[in-house]
Amino acid sequence: MRRFMLDSMVLDALAESQPATAAAIRRIESGEIALLITHVQRDQFAKAPAWKQAAVAEIAFETVDTSSAVWGVSNWGESRWGDAEGSLDAFRTGGRGGIHDALIGSTAAWEGVVLVTNDDDLFKKAAAASVETWRPSRLIEFLLA
Prior knowledge:
Elements lengths: L1 E5 L1 H8 L2 H12 L3 E5 L1 H7 L4 H6 L6 E2 L23 H5 L6 H14 L2 E3 L3 H9 L4 E2 L1 H9 L1
Parallel strand pairs: 1-2, 1-4, 2-3, 4-5
Helix pairs in contact: 2-8
């Protein structure tokens, strides 16, 4: 089974492609793949337009705890305590979403899954940390193949 950690923007890409959404549902149901998110992506996507939320509502995302907990960001019941051997610093990006990116990237590393992101900084940091990293377009091509 291939397992993928989706960055928040990947949920947007799935919402905008009904064929990819349908393919994701089929592949999850057949046990071929798992699409992972954390409370970070779920909380961010809760602010998306209703039509986007509805477009992906049938996808059975697997929610995993983040690899670390960050005061003021993490949901305590959905986070691991500690910093997974300092991995947050390795994944922190600049800008407003830096700590959110760090939680997503370090959780992908912790889970040993493919990280799917369109964020250039997170992509580079994850690749530098030896995390297999895909762009959303590659995931959609994979789903549709």
